[in-house]
Amino acid sequence: RPDLMALQAGYAAQEQKVWQSVLGQFPAFNLGFTRARDTAGVNTVGFGVSISLPLFNRNQGVIATQRATRAQLRADYQARLDQADADVRQAQADLALLQQQRQALLAALPALESAEAAALQALQHGGMTLLEFINQRTALLDQRLALQANAQQTEEQALALQLLTGLGPYRHAAATPFLPSKQQP
């Protein structure tokens, strides 16, 4: 899923920042070479060395900030991953319920069809009023409409499940599952 991939990339970028901060606690050496010439034709050449010694704080504040940010990104990623897992489980449960409802609707359909056929014969022979026949036919049509609504809900739920699992339109961009490690530099 794109949202999980974005959080994964954010975590990887923050991991690099943590490592850069850790490297910042070691002495930095700077070497310089200067060359100058004035209007009188005097040439000067110089060489400079500077060393930055982190004696007092050893870059600990920056390292702590970067580690805290990394921990927050990891927690956000894990929370989103857990939510996605819960959403997938709920969608699967909803699909199972819709399939059970469809089976119940299909099981009741033949009885309603035969009752409607019997009601039509009774209406033709005068054994039933038109209102009673219409009520029987309405019950059959309601059952068929319920089947259609169930089919639509099932398709919508299946599409939602595909999107939640990354198997829908984003399937080509999906990366391998990633769970950031808890390694500390």
Layout of helices and strands:
Layout: H1 2-23, E1 28-37, E2 43-52, H2 60-124, H3 130-165
Antiparallel strand pairs: 1-2
Helix pairs in contact: 1-2, 2-3
Brief summary of the model shown:
It contains three helices and two strands, in the order H-E-E-H-H. It has 185 residues and is mainly alpha-helical.
For this structure, the CATH topology is Outer membrane efflux proteins (OEP)
Shape: rod-shaped
Distance between the termini: 29 Å
What is the count of β-strands?
2
Please bin the fraction of helical residues. 55-70%
Architecture (CATH level 2) name: Up-down Bundle
Q: Which stretches are low in confidence, meaning pLDDT under 50 for 5 or more residues running?
A: none
What is the rounded Rg? Answer: 36 Å
Explain what this protein looks like in three dimensions.
The structure is a single chain. With 185 residues, the protein is mostly helical. The chain has helices at residues 2-23, 60-124, 130-165, and strands at residues 28-37, 43-52. It has a single domain (2-25, 56-170), classed as Outer membrane efflux proteins (OEP) (Up-down Bundle), CATH 1.20.1600. It is built from three helices and two strands, in the order αββαα. Strands 1-2 form a two-stranded antiparallel ribbon. A hairpin with a 5-residue loop joins strand 1 and strand 2. The longest helix is centred in the middle third of the chain and has 65 residues, at 60-124. It is rod-shaped and about 130 Å long.
